[in-house]
Amino acid sequence: MSKAPTSTILAIAIVLIVVAGIAGYFVGQTAAPAATVTVTAPLATVTTTVVSTVTVTATPAPTTPPPVAKFKIAVVSDIGGRGDLSFNDMAFKGADEAARDFGLEVLEFISKTEADYIPNLRTAALDPNIKLIVGVGFLLSEALVEVALEFPNKYFAGIDTDCQEKIVKTKYPDKYPLPNLLDIKYEEHKGSALVGALGCLLAIHYNYPHIGAVLGIEIPVLWKFEIGYKWGCNWAVEWFRKNFPAEYEAKSRIAGNLLATDPKSRVLWTYTGTFSDITKGYLAAKEMYAKRAVAVYNIAGPLGLGINQAVEEIVKPLGLTMGPPFWIGVDANQDWINPGFVVASMMKRVDKGVYYATYLVLIGKFEEVVRKYKGVLLLGIGTEIEGVLMEGISVSTLADLDEFIEMGVTAEKLLGKPVLPMPPAEIKRRVKEMRDSVPSWIWAAVAELERLIREGEVQVPLPLTEDDVKYWRGILG
Amino acid sequence: MRPLKSSVVGVLTRLVEASLALAIGLAISAVLIAVYGYDPARAFYWLFYGGFGTWSLLFDTLAYATPLMLTGAAFAVCASTGMFNIGVEGQAYMGAIGAVALGGLLASQLPELAPAALPLALAGSAGLGALWALGPAVLKVLRGVHEVISSIMFNWMAFYTAMYLVRGPLMNPARPEMSISVVPQARFPVLFRGSILTNSIYVAVAISILAYLVLRMTRLGFEMRLVGSNPDAARYAGVSVSRTTLVAYLLSGAIAGLGGGLIVVGRPPVWSIYGTLGNVVNVGFDGIGVSMIAANNPAAVVLSSILIGGLWNGSRFMEPYAGVCSELSRAVIGLIVLALSVPGVLRMLRRRTVLELTVAALSAFVLRTFGVLRRGLGRWSS
Predict the structure, then answer these.
(1) Whole-number pLDDT of residue A48
(2) A54 band by pLDDT with thresholds 50, 70 and 90
(3) A40 and A134, same domain (yes or no)
(4) A7 and B377: CB-CB below 8 Å?
(5) CA of A392, closest CA in chain B: separation in Å?
(6) Which of A13, A198, B230, B240 is 20 to 30 A distant from A113 in Cα terms?
C-alpha cells in the first residue's frame, strides 16, 4: 500500500489547527458593536404622512465602545438571492427604499440552499445592530419560527410565510401569536379579480371566446388566484351588460365572442402540477390559445416563460407588434418581458411588505400590530393598518414600468448577461403603444372595480377550504 | 505498511502539500476577489470567522460537515477499491427518501413502530442507498460498464425519482412544497441551543472511523485495497475481484445513503426534503471533494469535511459583512476546494489513466453546476 493513513490524518489536523488559529486571531480582534440610535422616520409613500422619532437600544457591549453604529435591517433571501427579478429582488428593493427613507442600513444574507435558512436568520439575529430580520418566501416559515422563539428581542417578518397560523398555533399554542413575528401576506384574490375583469373585457372587445389561466400545483394559495380570476370575469360581464346594453345584445349574437360562450366555460384553466417545468406551461397555454383565449394569466411563476413562448409562436409568423393575443403577468411587473404582449401584471408588492414591516418597527408598533391581527399583516387593496394606508396588491401601470426596468438593468449588471429584451426606451414605447390601443373604457372598468373593492362595495370571494372551492367552481365554472 | 521513518516523511509531505494547496487556493481567490473590487483580507476574515469564529458558528460548521463526512467516506471506500463512485450524489438522494419513507410515512401510518422510527429511518436510508448502488455495481461486474458513466445516469434517475416521490406519494398535504416530516421520535436531538448541530454527528464520525477500520484491519478491507491497487495481483492471490467490487460499491452506497438520510433526521427545522431537493442536492458532489482532500482516507474525511463545512458555513458571511457578492463567494469556495484536492488527484493519477480522471472530474464538475442551475430553476414562486 502506498498510502500512509496516519500521515494524512495528521496533516489535515495540522491544517485545521492552523486555520482555526488564524480564525481565532481574527476573532480576538472583533468587538461587539452596540449603540443607541435615534431615527427620524418619514413614511413618504403613505397618504397620511407620519413623522415619528424612535429610540432603538441595542445590548450594551462588553468591550470598547465603537463609533456610532447604525440601526440595521437584514434580508435573508430565498435560494438564489439577487437577480431573480421576482421575490428576492422585490424584497431587496423594499429594504433599500426603507433604508434610504429612514436612514438605515441593509444587510443581505443570501441562502445558497434551504440548509442555510436557520444559520442565516440566526447570524442576522446575533448582530446587535440588526433589529428587524425579513425572511423572503414561504419556505422560510419553519426556520423563522425557530429563530424568532430564540430571539424574543428581535423582530422577524416573513414574506408569504405561514408561521403563526400553521406552525406557532399548532406547535406552540400557548405562545400564539408570537409577539415578535409577523407573516406578511397578500390578498391575491382581489388582484386576480382585477385582471380577470381586464381579460374578460378584452375578449368581449376583440371578439374572443375565452380567457385562460395556467396554474402551478394545486395548493390553497392558488385557489385564491383561480376563484378571484373567474369572479372578476363574471363581474366584468355584468358590468358590460349594465353599461353597454345595446352592445351587449349585439356581441352576444356574435359566435366566438365571450358573451356567446357558456358562462361556465369562459375561463379555461389548468393546474399544471409544477412550478418549474416551463414546457408544461407552454403546452397548457398553447392549448388555450388554440381555443382562442384572448389572454392567459400566469399563476405559476416561471411557467410564464412557457406562456410567452406560446404567444411568440402565434404572433411571430403574423408579424404582430402587439396583442391580442396577450398574457397576464404575476407577482412582479412582468410587462417588460415581452412588451406589447403582456397586457398587465397582477403585482404583489413584496417590496412594500418589507417597507411597512420596517416602518412598524420604527414607530414601535410592531408588537401591537402582531397582537391585533394575530401575527398576520394582510396587504391588499385599500388596506389600512394603524391609520396608515398599506397596499400590497395592484394592477401594473405604465408608471410602474420604470422601476422594474431598473431592476432588469441591475440584474443585467449582476448576471453579466442580457435580461431586457430591448433597450428600456423601446420597451416603454411598445408598452405604451399597446396600452393606448386597448380602449379606455376597459381600463376605466378595471379602475372602477378597484374602487369598489377598495371601498368595500363588492366582496371578492376568498376560498380557504376545498368545499369553498367546489362551491365557487359550481357557480363560476 | 511503510516503516516508521517513511511515515514521518509521509506526514511532512502531506502537510507541506496541503498547506501549499491551501495557500495557492487562497492566493488565487484573493486575486479574484481583488479583481472584482472587494477587499480580500476582509473577505477572508469573515470567511474564517463565519466558519470557526464562535462556538455556535463552529457547531454550525460541524452540522454542515456531518452529511459530508458520510458522502466523503462513501467515496473514499470506493476509491480505495479503485472505483469512482460519482453516484454518491444519487445514493444520497435515495437515502433521504428512505429516511422519509420509513421514518415519516411508515412510522406515522403504524404508530406502534414510532418508538423504533430512528433506527428504521437510518436502515431505510442505508438500504435504499445501497440499492441504488446495486445497479452500477452489477453492470460493472457482469458487463464491464464503467461505473462513472453508469452512476452519472443513476444520479439523474435518482434525481427524478426522488423529485417525483417528494412531490407525489411522499408529499406533505399541509405543505405541498416539501415532503412529509419524519416523526418526532426519528429526529436527532439538537446538541446545543443556538446551533443546528444534532447528535447525528456521532453517527457520521463513528461510521467514517468504522469504514477506516474495515479498510485497514479486516480481511475484506485488505482485499478491497488489493483490488484497488492491482486487480490482476488480487486475482492471482485468489481474491474474487467481482465479489469485492460488488461489496465495496454496496458499502459505499449504504454510507452515502446514510449521509442523505442524516440531512432529514439530523437537521432542524423541517425534518423533510424540500420539493426542489434543495437541502440534499450537491451533498454527494461536495463529498467527492472532501474525500479527495483527505486522499480518500475515510478517517481523514472527518477532518476535511469539517474544513469544507466551515468554508460553506463561513461563506454566508462574505456577502453581508464583506460585500462580496454571493456568486463570487461560491466561486471562491470552489477554488479553495479545487486547490486542496489537487494533491489527492495527482496521487490518484499514478494509478488511474489521465482520461479516466478527466472524465470523472469533468462529469463531477458539470453535474455540480447542473445541480446549482436546477436548484435555481426549481425555485418555488407565485
Answers:
(1) 36
(2) very low
(3) yes
(4) no
(5) 15
(6) A13
Residue A22 domain flag: no
Phi and psi at residue B134, to the nearest 5°: -60, -40
User: What's the CATH number where A95 sits?
Assistant: 3.40.50.2300
Report pLDDT for A278: 85
Same domain flag for A301 and A366? no
Q: What is the pLDDT of residues A164-214, one digit of tens each?
A: 988 999 999 998 899 999 999 999 999 999 999 999 999 999 999 999 999
Is there a single domain that holds both residue A247 and residue A202?
yes
**Are residues B196 and A331, on separate chains, in Cβ contact within 8 Å?**
no
Residue A403: domain span? 189-347+396-476
> How many Cβ atoms from other residues are within 10 Å of residue B156's Cβ?
13
SS3 of residue A330 by DSSP: strand
3-state secondary structure of B49: helix
Chain A positions touching B221 (Cβ under 8 A) are: none
pLDDT digits (tens, 9 = 90+) for B109-157: 998 998 999 999 999 999 999 999 999 999 999 998 988 889 989 999 9
> Would A379 be classed as within a structural domain?
yes
> What number of H helices and E strands is found in chain A?
16, 16
Q: Read off the pLDDT of residues A373-403 as tens digits, 9 standing for 90 and up.
A: 999 999 998 888 888 888 899 999 888 888 8
Beta carbons of B295 and B11 less than 8 angstroms apart: no
Identify the three-state secondary structure at position B3: coil
CB < 8 Å from B in window 301-360 of A: 301-302, 330-331
Q: Chain B: nearest CA to A266, how far in angstroms?
A: 24
DSSP string spanning B202-264?
Answer: HHHHHHHHHHHHHHHHSHHHHHHHHHHH-HHHHHHTT--HHHHHHHHHHHHHHHHHHHHHHHH
Distance from CA of A318 to the nearest CA of B (A): 31
Give the pLDDT confidence of B192-249 residue by residue, as tens digits.
888 899 999 999 999 999 999 999 999 999 999 999 888 899 999 999 999 999 999 9
Q: Please identify, among A335, A365, A388, the residue that sits at the C-terminal boundary of a domain.
A: A388
* Region of residue A395 (phi > 0: left; psi between -120 and 50: alpha; otherwise: beta): beta
Domain count, chain A: 2
Let me know if residue A14 belongs to a domain: no
Clarify whether residues A99 and A219 are in a common domain. Answer: no
What nine digits make up the cell of A153? Answer: 428581542
- Residues A331 and A359 occupy one common structural domain: no
Helix/strand/coil percent split, chain A, to 5: 50, 20, 30
Q: What is the mean pLDDT of residues A47-68?
A: 39
Burial class (CB in 10 A: 0-12, 13-18, 19+), B109: exposed
HSE (side-chain half, CA atoms, 13 Å) at A452: 18
User: Higher pLDDT residue, A407 or B302?
Assistant: B302
**Domains of chain B with CATH codes:** 70-300+349-377 (1.10.3470)
* Residue partners of B16: CB distance under 8 A and separation at least 6: none
The predicted model gives B37-62 an average pLDDT of 93
Q: Kindly tell me if the per-residue pLDDT of A26 is higher than 60.
A: no
Instruction: Provide the 10 A C-beta neighbour count for residue B362.
Output: 11
Distance separating alpha carbons of residues A270 and A422, to the nearest angstrom: 31
Which residues, numbered 11 to 30 in chain A, qualify as contacts with chain B under a Cβ-Cβ cut-off of 8 Å? 11-16, 18-20, 22-24, 26-27, 30
Domain membership of residue A2 (yes or no) is no
B380 contact residues in A (CB cutoff 8 A): 137-139, 275-276, 301
Q: Of A217 and A189, which is predicted with more confidence?
A: A189
Residues A150 and A218 in one domain: no
Q: What is the pLDDT of residues A299-309, one digit of tens each?
A: 988 888 899 99
CA distance A335 to A450: 20
Considering only CB atoms, A301 lies closest to which of B22, B303, B382, namely: B382
A109 contacts B52? CB cut-off 8 A: no
For residue A276, give the nearest of B14, B315, B377 by CB distance.
B377
